[in-house]
Amino acid sequence: LEVLRIINEPTAAALAFGLDKVKKEQKILVFDLGGGTFDVSILELAEGTFEVLSTAGDNSLGGDDWDNEIVKWLIDLIKKDYKTDVTNNKMAMARLKAAAEKAKIDLSSSQQATIMLPFLVMQQGSEPISVEATLRRSQFEEMTSHLVERCRKPIETALADAKIKISDLDDVILVGGSTRIPAVQQLVESILNKKANRSV
Prior knowledge:
Elements: H1 9-16, E1 26-33, E2 38-46, E3 49-58, H2 63-82, H3 90-106, E4 112-121, E5 129-136, H4 137-143, H5 145-149, H6 152-162, E6 171-175, H7 182-192
Parallel strand pairs: 1-6
Antiparallel strand pairs: 1-2, 2-3, 4-5
């Protein structure tokens, strides 16, 4: 394997979208919300070369935080309905985490998600606890609105550091699984007043 050059993540994202094929000069905002980190970069493309004008982000924000809000909701639901605290049960917590991630993904395309966890807790001398719950997208958006709002500041910082106006942007690229969350897309598009590119 011969390494020709090493490129940074936002440049790789722009290349994946084929933006290096565009002949004119352009400025691109890359919004990258992964599982554990969040970055906003502004690139300038000129003569087939990308230059990173600015980068901002939040290293403690990622898709896992959205999952964790659903996990907290499920823990509270189980406490209320079954009078049981599952937080010290490693196996039950692992199943809650997996179910939360699936629900988050389902809510990106549906208005509600059904969470089914048969035999979540086996209790000696009593019936096992099986959980079935329905989470609506509106509930999910309410419980995670503070996370969505945390995406705002890095966008504003990246624009300020690059010394460009929103109207100077030619394209907006969304990267990372958590950018499929409708509320995240709506925030980006409302701030930048531009339809985001989600074709990869």
